[in-house]
Amino acid sequence: MVSQITRGIKISVTTSFEGTYFKNYKLHFAFSYHITIENHSKDSVQLMSRHWEIYDSLNHKEIVDGEGVIGKKPVLKPGESHTYSSGCLLSSPFGAMKGHFNMINFTTTRNFRVIVPTFKLGAPFALN
C-alpha cells in the first residue's frame, strides 16, 4: 500500500493483478486498484474530478481525466472516508499510475488538488 496526505486529505492505494485476456487481437494485462480517501482536515470537502497518468513498461502513457470517481462525487465531512475500486488495462505486465483529485473545500469555497502517489502495477508471474 502507498499513502500520501495533501492538505489533510489522505489517499491510500492498494493494487491487484486480475489476469490476462485478448482484446482486439492483442494481449492485455488487467489490474484493479482500491483507493481510500480519508478527510483528516477540519473542513468538509467534495471530490469533483480526477486526473490519471497511466504508464506501462513499454513506455506507453495514457492520460485520463473525468468527473468524480466511478460516477460519484463524494462529500467527506471531517473524519469520514470514501473507498472505491476501479481498474486499468496495460499492454505489458508492469506499469504504474499517478494522478490527483480536484476537490473543493466547503468552508473556504476554494478548489484544491490532492495528490495520488505513484503506485506500481505488476503481474506476479512476471516478477523475478
TL;DR of this structure?
With about 130 residues, this protein is mostly beta strands. It has strands at about 1-5, 10-25, 25-40, 45-55, 60-65, 75, 80-90, 95-105, 110-120.
End-to-end Cα distance, whole Å, is: 20 Å
Count all strands and give the number: 9
Helical stretch tally: 0
Q: Mean pLDDT, as a whole number?
A: 95
CATH-derived architecture: Sandwich
Binned, the helix content reads: under 10%
Structure notes:
This protein is mostly beta strands. It has a single domain, classed as Immunoglobulin-like (Sandwich). It is 0% helix and 70% strand. The protein is built from no helices and nine strands. The strands form two sheets. Strands 4, 5, 6, 8 and 9 form a five-stranded antiparallel beta sheet that branches. Strands 1-2-3-7 form a four-stranded antiparallel beta sheet, with no helix packed on it. Strand 2 and strand 3 (26-39) form a beta hairpin. The mean pLDDT is 95.
Summarize the helices and strands and which ones pair or pack:
Elements: E1 2-6, E2 9-23, E3 26-39, E4 45-56, E5 61-67, E6 75-76, E7 81-90, E8 94-105, E9 111-122
Antiparallel strand pairs: 1-2, 2-3, 3-7, 4-5, 4-6, 4-8, 8-9
